[in-house]
Amino acid sequence: MAKRKPIPTNESRIPTMADVARIAGVSTSTVSRALAGLPPIPEETRQRIAQAAKEAGYAVNRHARSLRLKRSKVILVLIPNLANPNFPDLLIHIDRAAYDCGYDIMIAHTAIDPGRSDRYVDELLAGSIDGVLLTASYCPPRLLECIAAGRHLPIVRTLSPTPDLTGITAVQIDEVKAAYDVVDHLAKQGYKRIAHLGGPPKEIMAIARRKGWEKALADHGLSASPDLYIQSGFTMIEGQRAADEIRSRSELPDAIFCSNDESAYGLIAALKGHGLRIPQDIAVAGFDDLSFSAVMDPPLTTVRLPRRDMAERSIQKLKALIEDDADNDNTILAHELIIRASSLRS
């Protein structure tokens, strides 16, 4: 191997791509492509260039690259409710995945002012934002109008299932199957009157989880009668209110599948306040596997979402859409049923 040429020892001098090329023993264009993550660069060469950049103290000028590529290198992440404990963990993974792909993220809290989303759409159309990551079923109407008009826009939805015929690609789990697995577990434990604490009736996620409940009951020959469906929401307060409604009924369910963990928390607290034991009197299961679910009293049976994988795959898919190397197929990731004491018969 040729002897490496030293970098000039002027401390005020900023290392250049040419310095990295000299250390790595490759051309400047190869360094440029490798640091940009572009093919076709062998992995061994890519690693050698990365080490050379570290030795040289070279930092990629992302702003200059963005100007050359006519991209902002910014992804807009639309969050419906930052107070929802589902989102902080997801956002950490999204931010890390975006950084690894050379992008920054901008977070927009749509619940504060839904009309504000139109301003972000304008920024996307003007090129100030490269792509949009949706984390709920809500999509700004102007984006839907652009899609319907046939305009190519880099948009990916994750966490929430995507409605059919919207033209938006998604990274998600099979919500119906996940809900089915929870109710199937409850039925196999011997519970016969399995109620469902449903989410907002027009929310696509809540609709899918109700379908999973109904299908599992049908497969076990159990009833999905109207008195076993309790209309509620996704918050702890709504779970508490549902407990009061359940207590007022002539016949109690022996198990309840909640649309999410938050509502399950409120339900369990209120049922215990009424003197009922979990799971001896009523078993309870949730959906999401939030961090508090493992330390509930009793620990909560639930569905674990692959949040890290969702974030990484979503960012990778969005990057491909932005850079015109896209696979527009929806990606279905595996969920995991986490069985804990709240649903187990003694």
From TrEMBL:
<dbReference type="GO" id="GO:0003700">
    <property type="term" value="F:DNA-binding transcription factor activity"/>
</dbReference>
<protein>
    <submittedName>
        <fullName>Transcriptional regulator, LacI family</fullName>
    </submittedName>
</protein>
<dbReference type="InterPro" id="IPR046335">
    <property type="entry name" value="LacI/GalR-like_sensor"/>
</dbReference>
<dbReference type="GO" id="GO:0000976">
    <property type="term" value="F:transcription cis-regulatory region binding"/>
</dbReference>
<dbReference type="Pfam" id="PF13377">
    <property type="entry name" value="Peripla_BP_3"/>
</dbReference>
<keyword id="KW-0238">DNA-binding</keyword>
<feature type="domain" description="HTH lacI-type">
    <location>
        <begin position="15"/>
        <end position="69"/>
    </location>
</feature>
<keyword id="KW-0804">Transcription</keyword>
<dbReference type="InterPro" id="IPR000843">
    <property type="entry name" value="HTH_LacI"/>
</dbReference>
<dbReference type="InterPro" id="IPR028082">
    <property type="entry name" value="Peripla_BP_I"/>
</dbReference>
<keyword id="KW-0805">Transcription regulation</keyword>
<dbReference type="InterPro" id="IPR010982">
    <property type="entry name" value="Lambda_DNA-bd_dom_sf"/>
</dbReference>
<dbReference type="Pfam" id="PF00356">
    <property type="entry name" value="LacI"/>
</dbReference>
